[in-house]
Amino acid sequence: MSEGKEDFDVNQVFENLLFAEEQAQKSGYTDGYESGQNKLLKGYHLGYHRASLVAAQLGYYCGVIEQYLHSNKSANEKVISLANEILENIHHFPKHNDNTTDILKTLENIKFNEKLWDKCLPELLKSELDNVKTINDIWKENETVTQLNEFIKITKLLSLQACPMILEFKDIPEFLLNLDNDKWKFNEIKNEDTGFMSKKKLHEVEILGHVVGYIANSTGSLVIDAGAGKAYLSTYLAENYQLPVLAIDSSNLCHKAAIHRAEKMKKIGKQTSSLVKYVVTKIDDNTDYSTMVNIHFPNWNLKSNLILTGLHTCGSLAHSLMKVFLQNDDFKVICVVPCCYHLVNESFSKRINFSRNARMLAQQCIERTKEAKSLSPSLFYRALLQVLLHSMGLYNVRIGRGGPLCDFPTYAKWALLKIGIDSKKIPSTEILEELYQSHIHFKLKLNLFQILRIYISPVLEAAIILDRIIYLQNSKQCSKSVILRLFNPVLSPRQYAIVAIK
């Protein structure tokens, strides 16, 4: 911190940024909407101020917030306080025309009561960011933005970058198997024969494949690829390390795609079919892997002779694999890459309880964002689309991903058609462009706010990953366990694997 300036509470900033997207909108919509139309306000008193629409909007907010307060009595104090503040403003909204009151301004104050920029950021940090002229300025080393630099420094210290448990790729043999690093040789494939994989997938399969292949050959183990998908990793291990692999997936579609890909591989001379066995079955805490190995590899000696792995084990799959690894004595090693944190809502320790928005944020990648030095225009387009939808009396609408990003009018028309709006009721290009121009001054702050949130994403990911490695350590069954940094985060944002040996 610079001398003479007041420190800000980074925990406070983190908490504010995490709760920025929390909205109480899962229930109470219907009752609130009807209340707004029929009871809360008498629309005809508001005349030309679009009375009915205003009443419906406020009724919606009122119903949602009242339902939230009723069903979330133990929620965060800040959220409760903010909800009560909005509710009070709604109840004090003028119910009759008043020459001394700007009704529309009062409505806007309620709708945008959150004012995230003002509420979530400490004054010193906010004042620095207010002087940022372009989004590129935030990536430059600048001694004048001391608060921002301190914030970034703290996020790095709280991320896995600074964690002493992190093992680098090159140190695997010595740490895990007490072998000489000179025997650890790895060269990424440079030819065009990628095995029908994208650049990202090839990068992941080669590196994780080398780790698993090296350990399996050193221990004489059979590999179980759980959540195998199209079996990219399975076939790579069989082809390059001559390992027997059981490729398991719960999706029948992925199972068929894996077999189809194997047939294509065979046509180009990749003879892996005899080493890889494909199984489609449900994968959970009770999956009997040993029986499947006995069926498909009847001559294999099971005892402590299996490796459990998974490339991007989505959601609860990582949890299930770790539990099974500890429960089944036939497993010697586990090596999994967790991902899709938003699909699992529990922690092993029960001490962290992130919201879905926070878990979604944990999947963001600051390295990739810094490499691009920009954010997708979809961020601002989606925010502006909400303004448009609200003006049309549409709430709680899900658009989903995708859409043309060449300009806002084109994106807005695509989105409105997608949700079933009659083309005759869609605003013209001129009106949509006018809406865009009238809000363009918010774009820089929106992007800066999002970048601050992305900076804390590795802190959230660290908490999630550490919770899982501590679970393995506390079991007392693992002789070694480590978080392994595997991938280039610009190519593959989920760069960490969890490795343990019994």
TrEMBL record:
Residue ranges occupied by any Methyltransferase domain in the UniProt entry: 200-346
This chain's protein is named: Methyltransferase domain-containing protein
